[in-house]
Structures are given as structure tokens and as C-alpha cells.
Amino acid sequence: MRNAFADVIYEIGQEDSRICALVADISPAGSIVKFREQFPGRFINTGVAEQAMIGIAAGLALKGMRPFCYTIATFSLYRPFEMIRVDLCYQNLPVTVIGMGAGVIYSTLGGTHHSMEDVAVAGAIPNMTVLAPCDPAEMRLMTRWCATQSKGPVYMRLGKAGEPDLTAKAVDDFKVGKIRYLQRGTDIALVSYGVSVAMAMKAAAKLEALGKSVSVLSCHTIKPLDRAGVEQMLASHKQVAVIEEHVPHGGLGSRIKEIAWESKAKCCLETFSLKDEFIHCYGTHDEILSAHGLNVEKILERLL
Amino acid sequence: MTNQQLPFDSSAAQKRCLKYRKRILEVSQQVSALHGAGAFSAIELVDCIYNNLMRQSSDKKDPGRKSPDTFLMSKGHGCMSQYVVLEDLGILSRMDLDLYCKSGGILGCHPDYGNPGIEASTGSLGHGMGLATGMAYAEQKIHQRDGVIYMVLSDGEFQEGSTWEAMMMAANLEIGNLVAIMDHNGYQSFGKTSETHPGFYPILAKVESFGWEVAECNGHDSEAIYTAVKQRRGSKPLMLIANTIKGKGVSFMENQPIWHYRSPNPVEFELAMTELKGVVA
């Protein structure tokens, strides 16, 4: 996903002279190098200075540019939080903040590099749009949307590298603000965003092998959430499971529970998330998730 | 295009600044908190930027908005000094200031982006330097225009790490079109900076060591401000350290921390106005 993002930035940088790339000392991957070489004036590396990255991006946007700020999620969102809130959101500027390696993908780097509450933090700010693509194809469409929209700031939660293609056979086309059926069933709906959609797909395959009819949805736009789409999903399945690599509070699970309560949904609603705990263990990404109860087996256990 | 005056008309500047101080006192009677002292220390700086340094459009109806130059009030709490100048230039209306902090008005204690003449929302300290660096870079290096970004910062803002982060970047980016003026009044909410935060000094050498051109002047001497800015070399961002007096112009407000926030009561208001009326500009 990281390399695909760099490709898209390079492409749109050629098409639109307002596109700027700002990074905070993250090693330039793939096409970001090409962007820097071809458009040196529109590439700024602020060094290890994320507050400057966001502030400068806001200043560029105030002078008509369309900046993308790019670094590891904890540093792109948490460190310069007040610059994001005031400079970007309060002024409602079209700046896209990319959180690379969001969630606990940097499993062995420890808690300082885990963004387990980024959706809650970014989503709490007025004017902020929160997006999380599930695969490189969705990320491409999303990045193009970010480059052309004028509505305001965006936080885009990205994975790392090597994500599989999950949307080639999607039922619905991608549209920002609309929940997207990747496959449609009648018994169980598995709804997720970002890299966790892959886990939902695997769980769906197991459930189908056991005779269940399963929908899988990519809720790539977490804010503003597609309320009508969520209500329809809750009304048309017996069981709904929200799967997210995020703390239990303030993420998609919380929002869907709110809508379920308000719309008097009849389905059985389960949420799967990280625990409300920092992670103090090490291992692969999957091992870390399992330690917090996020794996296909645990999902099947509760749904069956 | 430019309204540059040679020789510098100090008398006109003094008259304007006296008028601005009186107007701030008038508005202060509408509210209990106004940050008047921090506005008084910056009056000559803001006046000089708008009335002497920024190029004005030939469009008399909307002069400030059309200027190729930009002003950013990084010390947002000092914005009364900006509001009275914008009113004088016809960018804000008398009604706008009469409704300051009132229901139905558009102006509060800190500048809001989108209001006439306000180029960025400030109020939280330590944001202006990043914003101004981005603006100056866009003007000079991307759009390749000659717009100058003028900014007034408080001295307290230099305790924010974000100010120094952005200053390093401004030096790296070689933006010679950024003119930052520190309103060095030496006081902050908690007291005298040299006592509460002695490590803050020496300030000029610190800024220079960050790759900036530096200058220092009396921040209540309009001609000195003007000359210091005009004499800049222009290859690096400029930091003008303007030595000012918090509460300047009203003797009982000068260097008294209580006046950082509060507005004068009716008796104090009359005293202050009497004092200002006695000034012959």
C-alpha cells in the first residue's frame, strides 16, 4: 500500500501543480523519490519535526496548494495533534494527513509506534474526514479523491506493504462516504476497514464453508459514516460483526452500536477490537492481534 | 503599488497609533477581558506593517485584501491592535468592532480565518511560524510571486518548541520573503520573562544561530521599525526583535501583569483616556 500510495502521489503530482508532498524524515519509498526529483519545489522534508510539517502544510494550503503530509501514524497524528486541530480542522483546509503503518502493524517497534486510537482521536475533531482503504486499489481511488476535494482536512489510515487485492470482485464501486459491499450475503455481515478487511474475508470464507451466507463490507469512510448504509446493513442481516484494529472506544464498533441503538436494530451485534490496553508483547503483526483477541478463530467462536 | 513614504512620516504614524490606542480603550468598555496591554505593545508594529510596509492595492474599496503581501498575527491575543487598523483601512466596519465579543458579532478575542483581513486563525501560541513558513514558501518558491509574509509574534511564543522547529525549516527553505517581528515586551501571564524564564535570553544570538537574519529596534519607534525591515538583505528570513513595553501608552498599565487580560473599569478608562488625550502627536 505504501508503494502504491507513492505511485499515486507521483501521478497526481504530474496532473495537478497544487499537489505538495511533505514528509517528516521518513525514508522516501519508491515513487516518492521520483516526485521529489521531478517536483523538488513541491517536496518538503521537515526532518523530525511533525508540528512544522503540519503547520507548513496549512500555510501552503492557505496559499492555494493541496498538501499531503506523510509519516508513521503516531507521528503524523498524535505529535502534531493541536496543529491538526487548529491549523487544519478549525480553518477547514484541504490537507491530507497520511498515517502510515497504522494500528499495530509495526508490531515489534512497541507501543510508541502503535496507533491504536487514531480513528477515535482524528474522528473526534469537527471537519475531519477519516478514511481507511482496505487494499491498494481502494487507496488509489481514495488518494485521487483527496487530491481533488475541497471540503477540508482528511486523515487517511494506511497499512504498510504487501496487502492483498480484496476489491477486484467487489459488489459496489468505491464512493467516499458510502459503505461498500465487497461480497453480499444474507445471514452474517462482517464490516471492517483498512487492513482488518483481510481478516474479515478470511473469516467469511470459513463461515461460508460452514454453510453461512456472508456479506463483507469495507467501511473505508469512517467519518462521515454512511448512516443509511449502516442501518440497512443492520436491518438485513441476522448477525453483524464489526472488526477493527483499534481500541474498543471511539472507533467503528462504537459508532455502529450507537446507530443500532438509535435505529432499534434487531440483529445480533458483535464487536471485535483491540483491548483497552497498551501492548507490551512482541511478535508478528498477527501474533500481536491474537494476543488482543483479534483473529479468525476468535471471531468464528463468537459468531457460531 | 507601494505606499512607501520617504522621508518616513513619523508624525502621521504617531497620530494613527494614538487613535488606535484610544479606540482599543473604547472597545475595552464592552468586555471584561481584552488583552489590552499586549495589544498596546504591538500597536506601532502592526501600524507600520499595514500602513508603511505592506503594499496596498490601487483598489481603495478593499485595500488590505488585495495586497500582494500577507499579515499574520501569530500572537492572536494581540489582535485588537490588528482590528483597529483593519477598521481604519475600511476592511472591518465600525459595527464589527462595536460588536466585539458580543452576540451577533464576528470578532472575538482571537483572530478567525475567514473574517475580513484575517489570513489565519491564531490564538494558540506557537502556530504562526509554521503557517507563515508555508505561506512564504508557497509565495516565493512555488508561485514565484513577490508577496512578503509579515508576522508579529509574542516573545512568550518562543518558549514553544514548534516555533523553533518551523524557524529551522524557514532557514532551510531560504525564504527571504518572511519578515517576523517579535513583540519583545518582556512580560507574560505569569510575570517578567527575565525572572520566570531566564534561559530565554540571550534571544538575538539564538535566533541568528538558527540561520536567520536578525535586527533589533525600539518597537515603539515607527521609523526604526520601518528602517530595520527595509534594510534587510532578503536572502534569509528576518527576525526583528522589537523591544516594547507591555501596556505602552497608559502609565498605570505599563509592565503590570494584571493588564494582560483585564479591561479597565469606567474610572480607569477615564484616567487612561485623559492620559492619551494629553499626548500631542
Strand content of chain B: 5-15%
Series of H and E elements of chain B: HHHEHHHEHEEEHHEHEH
**CATH-level-2 architecture of chain B:** 3-Layer(aba) Sandwich
Distance between the termini of chain B: 28 Å
Radius of gyration of chain B: 18 Å
Report on the structure:
- The complex is a heterodimer of chains A (304) and B (281).
- By secondary structure, chain A is of the alpha/beta class.
- Helix content of chain A is 39%, strand content 18%.
- A seven-stranded mixed β-sheet of chain A has the order 2-1-3-4-6-5-10, sandwiched between helices. Chain A has a five-stranded mixed β-sheet with strand order 7-9-8-11-12, sandwiched between helices.
- In chain A, helix 1 (2-15) packs parallel to helix 2 and helix 3 packs parallel to helix 5 (81-90).
- The radius of gyration of chain A is 19 Å and the shape is globular.
- Chain B has a single domain (10-277), classed as Rossmann fold (3-Layer(aba) Sandwich), CATH 3.40.50.970.
- The mean pLDDT of chain B is 92.
- The chains are: A alpha/beta (304), B alpha/beta (281).
- Chains A and B meet through helix 3 and helix 5 of A and helix 6 and helix 7 of B.
